[in-house]
């Protein structure tokens, strides 16, 4: 419908009413037009002049789109709303998908569409939170400004206004600890290596893979300044860290009378144990004041502070009075520096250990802070809505959060249908108390990006309550146009893998699992959906039209789907290996072990076509932080460690952050299974059960050797290889008889 000079009376009436609501609403701070133009220029590669940006006033974030004087008019009440309106135009009118990865291209149409029906949306939630402490290890640890700039634009375009912002805090802590008698060398030794900083910041361990290089500390602080400047310019309110009681053990050398509690170290050795300072000690508030004063001086503030005492750790006492005193002390330190301080507490603690965090204990802690000055992130609502069993966190403000990913696992699992029902039920519940927003607390970026886009679109778009309708428009943005076959295929995928299969801890596949003849490794539980149903749907995805095949977003989705079909097939091949072994059939054993390892190679081939699934890219980004060969090898070990053993050899969290990454499959996972199959060959004739305890030691030694290998011994490609569609089609034809 062409809208240049002629509008229908009906459309005019609707728009007049819509705009009248804007103009009579209470004025907000208004959008930063220059920053919005700069964002549009970055995304469209310099085409902001084709857009006409105008401020409006409204009580909530609102945008309106129309064609005015042959330009795309975006009228909005805030910079975030303007960015969201721009994204609405790209997705729904241009059919353009903008991902959260800087490595992905944004393919704009040669001529921007000017003929479209006017549209507008209002946000129903004040707060839209994003990120998790762990994301700064599993995903962003090696990011440079170019990555962050792109990602911040993505957040703005998805309407996010409360990002967690914890990069570079070690620089400030180093200055604080210096004031309390510690040298810079002692502080660097207290900090972990780069990839484990999220857990060091949460008070879960110290020193592991440290000391942290000074160049990293300084560089990350400079990066944080850029991050905060851009986030604030776009109208976001970043959440900065605060002190929650975690201190260096070396502090006791200077203050021998302080009371410290050992909180453990995630099985990385007692030398890496974290320590908690008794909140009743006068030093506690002094540290809080020093840190927040230094942080405010260097970075400013938006009055939101993250502090999470006892995350996955037992407090020194479970007495409600003790927990209340702890909370009151933490907050009093915040308030003394910032009277407007709001404490952001992640609710994972209360979900994770619900047995101990009883309502009386939790209520005592929450109510020790003045009303509305502690905001809870209800962390894992797709699994358990803690607000429902705590009377809305005892009427404290809370944000309903979808977690969606642990460890950056790369499995296709996103319970969009379940989440839509839960979120709608909460929103419509008259007793939802102070639900102030929605958010996501993902640990790492995986392969279900659309789920997070859907979540934040839900805050603005009432149609998103029906994922079946929403997914059709999403399919258009992935193909660049309306491809009926692909739209229908996405609709079929919803009730299969996007229904209710929650992305829980250690969601993986058999290839990633510790090798065994039946079952799967503790941190590699399998999906619960119908694998055969996905295998039956997949070939339809290959029937895309030529325009879709030329779109890298479609081919990305194609690669992800085929990868999932293949790793699901690995379950039946592994089971066939087990049957052949127990029946002492050497011929079948060789056949199915050969097929299993061949399948690993093909998973490696299809993932090699996607940049985000390249182990080589992860390692290169890590090595780029070093200036000497020794430093480069140090960063590479950190990179390898996090995604495999996490801790030392045989660590209990091995495979927690399992990935379907090209290079990792061929050298790490396939290597472990080859070792296992060779061990089985030694006993197949006897039928004796394999000695799994003995093998696990071999496997752990293999894992640790892999961690301690570097690029000079085991190089990986950091650029994609192969045409995705051709590779996918060839692999499908090869394995179709087994599906």
UniProtKB/TrEMBL annotation:
Residue intervals of the Alpha-N-acetylglucosaminidase tim-barrel domain: 128-461
InterPro entries for this protein: Hex-like_dom2, NAGLU, NAGLU_C, NAGLU_N, NAGLU_tim-barrel
Gene Ontology terms, MF aspect: hydrolase activity
UniProt keywords, alphabetically: Hydrolase, Signal
GO BP: carbohydrate metabolic process
Domain Alpha-N-acetylglucosaminidase N-terminal: 36-113
Pfam families: NAGLU, NAGLU_C, NAGLU_N
Signal peptide (from-to): 1-27
Stretches assigned to the Alpha-N-acetylglucosaminidase C-terminal domain: 470-734
Protein name stated in the entry: Alpha-N-acetylglucosaminidase
Species this protein is from: Mucilaginibacter rubeus
């Amino acid at each position: 419908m062409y809208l240049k000079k002629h509008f229908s009376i009906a459309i005019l009436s609707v728009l007049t009413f819509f705009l009248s609501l804007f103009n009579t609403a209470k004025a907000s701070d208004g959008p930063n037009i220059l920053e919005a133009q700069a964002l549009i220029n970055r995304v469209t590669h310099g085409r902001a002049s084709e857009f006409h940006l105008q401020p409006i006033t409204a009580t909530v974030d609102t945008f309106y789109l129309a064609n005015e004087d042959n330009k795309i008019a975006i009228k909005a009440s805030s910079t975030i709303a303007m960015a969201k309106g721009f994204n609405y135009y790209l997705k729904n009118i241009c059919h353009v998908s903008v991902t959260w990865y800087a490595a992905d291209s944004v393919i704009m149409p040669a001529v921007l569409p000017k003929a479209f029906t006017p549209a507008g949306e209002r946000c129903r939630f004040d707060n839209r939170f994003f990120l998790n402490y762990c994301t700064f290890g599993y995903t962003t640890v090696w990011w440079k400004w170019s990555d962050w700039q792109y990602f911040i634009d993505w957040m703005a375009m998805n309407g996010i206004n409360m990002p967690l912002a914890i990069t570079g805090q070690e620089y400030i802590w180093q200055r604080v600890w210096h004031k309390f008698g510690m040298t810079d060398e002692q502080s660097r030794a207290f900090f972990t290596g780069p990839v484990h900083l999220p857990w060091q910041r949460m008070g879960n361990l110290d020193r592991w893979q440290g000391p942290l290089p000074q160049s990293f500390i300084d560089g990350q602080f400079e990066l944080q300044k850029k991050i905060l400047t851009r986030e604030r310019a776009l109208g976001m309110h970043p959440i900065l860290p605060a002190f929650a009681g975690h201190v260096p053990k070396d502090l006791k050398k200077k203050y021998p009378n302080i009371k410290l509690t050992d909180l453990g170290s995630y099985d990385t050795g007692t030398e890496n144990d974290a320590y908690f300072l008794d909140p009743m000690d006068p030093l506690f508030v002094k540290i809080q004041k020093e840190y927040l004063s230094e942080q405010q001086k260097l970075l400013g503030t938006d009055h939101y502070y993250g502090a999470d005492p006892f995350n996955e750790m037992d407090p020194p006492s479970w007495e409600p009075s003790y927990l209340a005193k702890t909370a009151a002390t933490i907050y009093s330190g915040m308030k003394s520096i910032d009277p407007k301080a709001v404490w952001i507490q992640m609710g994972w603690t209360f979900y994770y250990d619900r047995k101990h965090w009883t309502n009386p204990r939790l209520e005592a802690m929450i109510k020790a802070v003045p009303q509305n000055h502690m905001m809870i992130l209800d962390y894992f609502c797709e699994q358990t809505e803690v607000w429902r069993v705590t009377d809305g966190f005892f009427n404290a403000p809370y944000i309903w959060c979808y977690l969606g990913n642990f460890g950056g696992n790369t499995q296709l699992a996103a319970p969009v249908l379940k989440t839509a029902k839960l979120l709608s039920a909460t929103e419509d519940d008259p007793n939802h108390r102070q639900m102030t927003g929605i958010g996501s607390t993902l640990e790492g970026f995986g392969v279900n990006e659309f789920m997070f886009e859907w979540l934040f679109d839900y805050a603005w778009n009432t149609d998103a309550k029906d994922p079946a309708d929403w997914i059709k428009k999403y399919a258009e943005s992935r193909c660049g146009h309306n491809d009926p076959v692909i739209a229908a295929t996405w609709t079929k995928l919803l009730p299969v893998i996007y229904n209710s299969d929650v992305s829980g801890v250690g969601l993986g596949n058999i290839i990633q699992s510790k090798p065994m003849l039946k079952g799967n490794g503790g941190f590699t539980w399998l999906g619960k959906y119908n694998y055969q149903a996905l295998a039956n749907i997949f070939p339809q995805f290959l029937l895309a039209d030529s325009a879709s095949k030329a779109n890298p977003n479609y081919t990305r989705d194609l690669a992800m789907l085929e990868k999932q079909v293949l790793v699901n097939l690995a379950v039946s091949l592994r089971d066939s290996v087990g049957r052949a072994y127990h029946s002492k059939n050497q011929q079948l054993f060789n056949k199915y072990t050969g097929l299993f390892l061949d399948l690993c190679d093909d998973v490696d081939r299809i993932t090699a076509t996607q940049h985000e699934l390249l182990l080589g890219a992860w390692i290169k980004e890590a090595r780029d932080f070093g200036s000497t060969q020794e430093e480069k090898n140090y960063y590479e070990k950190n990179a390898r460690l996090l995604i495999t053993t996490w801790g030392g050899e045989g660590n209990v969290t091995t495979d927690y952050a399992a990935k379907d990454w090209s290079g990792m499959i061929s050298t790490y996972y396939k290597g472990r299974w080859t070792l296992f199959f060779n061990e089985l060959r030694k006993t197949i004739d006897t039928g004796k059960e394999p000695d799994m305890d003995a093998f696990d030691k071999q496997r752990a030694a293999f894992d640790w050797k892999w961690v301690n290998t570097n690029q000079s011994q085991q190089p990986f490609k950091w650029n994609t290889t192969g045409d995705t569609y051709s590779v996918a089609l060839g692999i499908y034809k090869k394995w179709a008889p087994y599906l």
